[in-house]
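Hi Y.,

Following your request, here is the sequence exactly as I used it, all 286 residues.
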Amino acid sequence: MLRIVRNHCFVWLAIASFLTSFTARAQEALTPSSISAILQQAVQFQLDDFHHRGWGLQYRVHRINQKEDSIREIIETEDGNISRILTFKGRPLTSEEETGELARLRALTPEDVRKRRQKSESSDKYGIELMKTLPKAMTFITVAGQPQLPNYPRPQIVLDYAPNPEFHPASTTQSLLMGIAGRIWIDAETHHLSRIEVRVIQNLNLMFGILARVYQGGTLSYEQKPVSLTHDAYTEIKMDVKLRELMVHVAPYQETLSVTDIRFLPTAPSVHDAVNTLLAIPAIKP
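Below is the corresponding structure, written out as tokens. Let me know if you'd prefer a different format.
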């Protein structure tokens, strides 16, 4: 027993020594130009994965917000994502709901899935613009001590960011970046994004506040992990904001999406094959 404890101590000392050494090297090596290059790589990797083709993922998502507590199994096909509802409002589906869900899946066609993907990609353009603009819209500084993410397989570079006073937004979408700050973790080896935290530091107006307003003090976090040598998948998204929609009323909004059972699919399946896979999943019982 003593030998086992001593060996564990040596392991932890070695890990601590490595991380301390890494932190010192990272802080010494990171210059404004190297940080800029790393951020550009991280953004490009994120964009490449955002609307990927050829490969896919299968995973289980637990979504919790004020109106929903559900679990879905999702498969990314060659035509877009399809899902099967496994729980609804925090409970397994009734026999009638289960029958309806299986019938919906059996009726899905590739054209249905493609239409839904096209609609989603159209609305994603604003997020893509923000992602592309982030490196030049913000100033980035290394975080003292380089606090590492638990359960992440490799060391990360940790940076705090805030609006760059010399940046001039070229669009209403880009101007949203002037109202946020936060922290970002980037895989030190691959330069892939590991985690980003966002704090709303001034009110954000969507469509001049007509569509929505997100109030100062809100937070959002997004975390992902590697699922292959070159690709990542998100594992958790948390949102805690106060917003006003369509100039109607102000309300708090909290949502958490937690992802488990992630499988990397080197070749994206067809809609037909994915539907059969989803149909074969046993129903969750009460």
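The mean pLDDT is 85.

Thanks again,
Q.
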